[in-house]
Amino acid sequence: MKYAKVDEANPALVICVIDCSKSMDGSHAHRHAFAAINALRKNANSKKKQVRLVVIGFSGGAKTEYKGWCEDFLGIKRMGGSSQTHLKEACDKVGVEYDHHVKNHCNDGNPLVNVLMFTDGSHTPGLDIKRANSGIPLGPNKWAEKTPDGWIKRIADLENVLLGVIDYSGKLPQFPLPTLKIPYRKVTCASVLEKSMLQRAYARDLTVRPPPGQSLEEVFGPIQNLEGRRFIVSSKAIKDNPQVTSAFVRLGTVSTFAGANIGGAGPPMPPDDTDFTSKFKNIWGEEE
Question: How far apart are CA 178 and CA 116, in angstroms?
């Protein structure tokens, strides 16, 4: 990744995009996603005014639930949702929030950005149809123009952006090769993981140890399993170890929170002691 030096003039941005459909609520995937995001605030306390956080919730539509300094995040109320999944609007909103951050908070045009998506569904095709007030279909609307990848690709392809996807449905493969063809109604253009970033992430676990069972090697295996592959975590890993959500967030934000205090001096990063011992119900999201 190539990005501007992270400081108060060019703060990093973490965007968390959470599927709030009924199936995500039913599987209790929300609980782990929100707990992992809440843990970011503790880490940001050592880097005040250097990391901004945006939380986007989506089901039948997409809405920005929080936007501000990461250390000021106090959590958000549980976000109820419908049975629909407007993944395309969520992807478009990522671009809107990225543009807002660059325009309003950065001196340079290439700040460090980490985008993390938590979802169990594919985009609902019915949301791509314009309807009359009576409900009669009138033809395709603007969302029909592109796939979810098409709506987020201009952001995902930037050198200063790391995009990760954690999929609770079982429809996406874990850490696939970039050439693998996967369902077009999902976000598949996740970033390809670089060796240097993985080495930093794994090294951090040796100096700032997470709770037992939560290290990246325990959850994902050796670095060789991830290097050169897309940053997509599948439901199989989640079922085997519910703590994978915490590991996903730590890996996805290592460029922001790990290392020698991005950009210079400051206190060391506090240990990540988030506890994810509760198990998911045996209910997993189906295709929306």
Answer: 18
Could you tell me if 285 and 121 are in contact, meaning their C-beta atoms sit under 8 angstroms apart? yes
Which of 1, 32, 29, 33 shows the shortest CA–CA distance to 17? 33
Task: Supply 2's token pair.
Answer: 């190539």
- Residues 117-142 have a mean pLDDT of 88
Q: Tell me the C-alpha distance between 236 and 219, whole Å.
A: 11
Task: Give how far Cα 63 sits from Cα of 34, 97, 145, 148, 213, Å.
Answer: 16, 11, 21, 16, 34
Q: Pull the structure tokens for residue 144.
A: 């029909």
At a CB cut-off of 8 Å and minimum separation 6, what does 241 contact?
213, 218, 219
Contact 76, 55 (CB under 8 A): yes
Find the angle CA(239)-CA(252)-CA(218) to the nearest 5 degrees.
45
- For residue 40, the model assigns a pLDDT of 84
Instruction: Evaluate if residue 229 carries a pLDDT over 90.
Output: yes
Local structure of 288: helix, strand or coil? coil
Residue 48, classed as helix, strand or coil, is: coil
Contact partners, residue 176, CB within 8 Å, separation at least 6: 182, 229, 230, 232
Q: Rounded to the nearest 10 degrees, what angle do helices 29-44 and 244-252 cross at?
A: 40
Query: Of 8-12, 78-82, 166-170, 284-288, which range is least confident?
Result: 284-288
What is the structure's pLDDT at 262? Answer: 42
Q: What is the DSSP string of 132-181?
A: -TTS-EEEE-GGGGS-HHHHHHHHHTSTTEEEEEEESSS-S-SS--TT--
